[in-house]
Amino acid sequence: MKHNEYKQLLQLSLFGELKSEEQLKLKEHLLTCEECRVELEDQKNLLELISGKKKAAVDEKVLSAARYQLRGALRAERSSNNILNSIADNIFQYFTTPLKFTFAGAALLIIGVVIGGIFFNKSSQTEFTGQQNGESKFSSLSEDISISNVRFIDSDASDGEVEFTFEASKPIQLRGKVTDPQIQSVLTYAMLNEQNPGSRLNSINAMDAETPVQYDNDVKNALITVIMTDENPGVRREALKLMSKFTYDETVKQTLLYVITSDTVSGLRIEALNSLIEAGGKGYKLNQEELNLFRNKLQRDENPYIKLRSRTILQEYN
Amino acid sequence: MQLSDTDLIIQAQKGDQSAFEELVYRYDRNVLSITIKYANNEDDAKDLYQEVFIRVYRGLKSFRFQSEFSTWLFRITTNVCLTYKSRSKEHLKVSIDKDIDDEENEIRETTELVYDGLSPEEISSGADLGEIVNAAVESLSPKQKMTFVLKHYEGYKIREIAEMLNCKEGTVKKYLFDATKNLRKKLSPVYA
Q1: For residue B124, what pLDDT band results from cuts at 50, 70 and 90?
Q2: Residue A77 is nearest to which of B49, B54, B183, comparing CB atoms?
Q3: Contact: A50, B133; criterion CB under 8 Å
Q4: 0.95 surpassed by pTM
Q5: Are B109 and B94 in contact (CB under 8 A)?
Q6: Where are the alpha helices (DSSP H) in A171-216?
């Protein structure tokens, strides 16, 4: 065995990773090699120096805060999934079970016709092969159908064939009251998924025009998701404003606490704090765990107004 | 009687949120321990922890029991750590945003990493020892730091680390040797 290999064995030995025969070989080598003995001492000293963090157990407060944030994020994740399911449900709710199958069959037929039209209509094939860079229109099918996200499964045309997937979409115009479930579903979807923050904002504002609020839990869950996850503070603020019109309950309280403890914009934290204080005045109180989180976070908040208000709240509870 | 991971996963896959929570609570201490030691910053560590379990939540439906849940979970943990960019990384002069699969580049770049938090003069003048050690560990490349944290701070076996990182045991050893070499270079003024 070469000298350098013994040096590696030294390290593995310190990590407790040597087999007994390797350990024996190393021991024999150390008896005769001064350089390796020095090396062993050196590595021991190094590992001793670095082992400061080794034994440190996870701080319970940090774990508790991490779990709290995770619960909020999971709630947001679940409500986002629920919205998608609810849109599907809204489409299907008008049909009885046998009709659902008929509808599903019809939908498949339509998809089949569209795909058939794309692939078996000569002019669209020609047009398609002439397209570049993803987004395209099929004038032979319909002027307003567009395709995007073309992803090749097999781009090698040496055998005369290629295979790919793409998304086809068509603009649809809807007009109706915001109390209409279909309108609500689309607006809810838009506030969660639209790329453009202006569109997300408009979707929320459109719903805000309805007073008093008559929305179901899906809208509320979507608003909570927006409040917790939207990157745009303006969108989060409008969502918070609309959520304050909903009946105050445990979910609303948790969302307000999440904003107070986690949002980076002090204006939003103040709005959430004010809502929480207002609810407290109506008899909705915080439990001990929430108070502790509240106390820890607010002690560190850099905003003097939040510090002052939080002190008042904590005094009320003492 | 305590349910096995498999039972909990099956229940969670059917939408039982409490089963998922139970799974989280079974392992989240270990995950947080890794992220704290890797990120060396509580806020970043909590973000990483959250990202890990959101990915687990999303992926659990398609979990097919081809590996232990813990192996899968810690593989996700290491992936999330290795691809993370700290919110407070201004102190690193050299970006670590690079192709993490390019091992050769990684090893080469490691030797070029310069930590500007503490100079040799500051080290020799007795700056806080914890800070010096943290600075040296921070200066390692992501994979070197990951293997070092998992081995030295968390006490995992090389075989387990190889499973987590989805690589060969020899590769893990290589990262560990290089990590130690770099740490010795940085810290020799302190302990030699």
Answers
A1: low
A2: B54
A3: yes
A4: no
A5: yes
A6: 181-193, 197-208
